[in-house]
Write a structure and sequence with these properties.
The protein has 14 helices and 12 strands. The protein is an alpha/beta fold. The chain has 2 domains: 36-176, 3-Layer(aba) Sandwich (Rossmann fold), CATH 3.40.50.10860; 189-342, 3-Layer(aba) Sandwich (Rossmann fold). It has a 7-stranded mixed β-sheet with strand order 9-8-7-6-10-11-12, with helices on both faces. Strand 3, helix 3 and strand 4 (103-109) form a beta-alpha-beta unit. The structure holds nicotinamide-adenine-dinucleotide. The site of nicotinamide-adenine-dinucleotide (NAD) has 20 residues, from helix 7 and strand 7.
Amino acid sequence: MSEELNPFKIAQQQLKSACDLLGYDQSIYEALAEPERFIEVNLTIKMDDGSIRSFKGFRSQYNSARGPVKGGIRWHPDESADLVKALSAWMTWKTAIVNIPLGGAKGGIVCNPKNLSLTEKERLARAWTRKLADFLGPRIDIPAPDVYTDGQIMSWIMDEYESILRQKAPSMITGKPLIIGGSEGRNTATATGGIFTIEEAAKELDLELKDATVAIQGYGNAGSFAAILLKEWHDCKIIAVSDSKGGVFNKNGLDPKKVLEHKKKTTTVVGADGTSKISNEELLELECDILIPAALENVITETNAPNIKAKIICELANGPTTPSADEILFNNNILVIPDFLANAGGVTVSYFEMIQGYYLDFWSIDKVNKRLSVIMKDAYHAMRKKAKEYNVNNRIAAYALAVERVVEAMKMRGWL
Ligand code: NAD
């Protein structure tokens, strides 16, 4: 892989820029440029046909100055040590920007879960937990679901960990099903967290959310809940949504729930009643107040950025905007809410799941959303303050704020 595309090199370059902006010297950069601890394990399990197979597993614990580390577990054939390290760095900045008392981690297993039976998956999850048990725990490192892992896998990991510990430890992992200690509001958390930041951005721009026009790329977990809740809570006009097969448009507003029903029946939003067809490229350039990329990375580039007319871009997807596009949007006065703030509702509600597990006291959806709202809004305003202070775009400001918080914690502990 070229240096340019290596995710860990990218994460290190972003860190370097933030350190330079903050006036930190090289020694501080070096203290932050590698994970505190990186563990590689070899997992050998019996397959259903009696054969033996070994899989490589990782856990990267990037920085624990602000608290126990936290981050998802991916099961993917392309999983690599550098990808896991990069993702653990990004989790560190994400927990810091929303100011929850956690550090960042990430883990994974190199495998193709589509080729594993349910029982093989269970053996693999339990093997990963046994190898890493000494390094996991509610006050050490708290995993969560990520690509191709889910509530079932989290449940097996918790069960294996508890059997080693010979105690219950529900807060050792999040993303659990409700029946064994999951949190209300976890499914919708990414969308709701994003909406709370949109509310603050709209206030700043004097934009009335009632009848504000919204275009959303991607109609999966993040995009569809954002559409439904923006309509339900604020009576926004959702004028266009899309998925991998194309998009749909109605200038008077779509019914997001009906579009979702149509997608469930036909696998795509395309063809939903009362809509006309629109391409994914056209959707991004629509005349609208709020644009929400909620699908893929690198969709807003220097080619289409000059044509974007939205006033606010809320990045629910990870990495939808390239660095050159960022500068164009900034110069065109478009208010971008960067991914690691916009989509931090997920990790924040995971943190609530940990708290609920500590106290064995479970919250209503109203309580979850109220607390999430306070955290997201505070983070939004702290980022905007930094952006104005340094006259930089919101992404750079968010990085600077997050890195500064981690460095301050390291200094307080006497690490720097
Ligand atoms: P998902 O798989 O539920 O949905 C993805 C959607 O994107 C689908 O509707 C799919 O059809 C669409 N899509 C795929 N390729 C496309 C293309 N070429 N053009 C347009 N649409 C396309 O995924 P999700 O969980 O909603 O995640 C979406 C994004 O949000 C990802 O970048 C993810 O990393 C980020 N994110 C999600 C969460 C979460 O809690 N779900 C949390 C943080 C970040």
